[in-house]
Amino acid sequence: MRQEIANARRLVVKVGSALVTSNGEGLSYAFINDCARQIATLRTAGKEILLVSSGAIAAGMQRLGWATRPHAMHDLQAAAAVGQMGLAQAYDTTFAKHGLQVAQILLTHADLADRARYLNARSTLHTLLGLGVTPIINENDTVVTDEIKFGDNDTLGALVANLVEADALIILTDQAGLYTADPRRDTTATLITEGRADDKQFEAMAGGAGSGISRGGMITKVRAAQRAAKSGAHTMIVSGHTPDALIAASQGTAIGTLLYATESPLAARKQWLADHLQLAGSFTLDEGAIKALIAGRSLLPVGVTAVAGEFGRGAVIACCTSQGQEVARGLANYSSVEARRIAGRGTQEIEALLGYLDSAELIHRDNLILL
Fold first, then answer.
1. For a tag site, which of 187, 201, 210, 367 has the least CB within 10 Å?
2. CB atoms within 10 A of CB 173
3. If DSSP codes are grouped into helix, strand and coil, which group holds residue 14?
4. 72-89 as b/e, with b when 16 or more CB fall inside 10 Å?
5. How far is CA 163 from its chain centroid?
6. How many CB atoms lie within 10 A of CB 111?
């Protein structure tokens, strides 16, 4: 399993508040610089990196001179707004020294729950990776209405891994990994080197709360690993204090805790499509399009003779023969209204017909499963 991480092309790295802010004392430029150096090394090795960073509220607390975390929502949001400025500036200037360009992405869980916003976020992240830009992702704490928890970015890291079909999620924390019990209270606790992400016994082992800065603790990391595994991504929980921890983890070195998925990202995604019972509509395909799908290619508009149903972008659509037999299903890159306008037309005509070109395919092969 560690060799699979060594062979991984796309990694989501989550760094905790305790590391980014020196346990709440202020932004740790030394840690951020070291993180940038390691990411630059991984980029040179051909890996794509997305960084999910905590620390906005903690940094804001330090800038505002607050010694303890406030409870009022407006105070938390104010701290996030102040801290996000410094956090973004620190990443921008520090990563630039290592020849890396970064982009700030602020998300809420609502962005990932709404299908249209989910797909927009996914497209933006894929575009940034294609441009060689490192996305720096954080929860948009200034606008969320739910209770803000410092450990929540563990979950966000898993959601981002699902969003971009990452091969692995690496969580850098202030602990060496997952132990059989809290090592700060139980001297007999031993480090778990690896196990299945869906093994429920790990939740009991990780039940303790985090520090005053990293409120989520180990339990959110275990649950993040469970969530990431559903899209086929492995999770490594590693101490960010270990020299070159990120490089070592990405090379498959036996450090920290590996909670592994049992399916590959592509297999997990396609199994989800195969099991999806609520189809929003259908495309009727000509013989050429059916042969293309069987050969492993994407569905292009030119091969579609009819569009049935009313649906939005990202809906699960059946691909059928002229006799109505379903041969495949997948995620539509265009709505039903748009699909009808470009059905039967060449890819080069899409922009003229719609006023924009979002994708050359109606359904990309990675989002399609043959039945």
1. 187
2. 29
3. strand
4. eeebbbbbbebbbebbbe
5. 5
6. 18
Give the closest residue to 151 by CA, choosing from 75, 77, 208: 208
Q: Which residue has the tokens 């292009």?
A: 300
Q: What is the pLDDT of residues 265-305, one digit of tens each?
A: 767 767 666 666 678 999 999 999 999 999 999 999 999 99
- Angle in degrees, 0-180, between the axes of helices 73-96 and 29-44, rounded to the nearest 10: 50
Beta sheet of 326-331, edge-to-edge order: 304-308, 281-285, 316-320, 326-331, 368-370
DSSP annotation of 344 reads: T
Domains of the chain plus CATH, in order, are 2-264 (3.40.1160.10), 276-370 (2.30.130.10)
| Consecutive H or E run containing 29 | helix 29-44
CA 344 to mean position of chain CA atoms: 35
C-alpha closest to that of 200 among 223, 233, 216: 223
Distance of CA 265 to the CA centre of its chain: 12
* DSSP bridge partners of 239: 173
Give the separation between CA 121 and CA 108, rounded to whole angstroms.
11
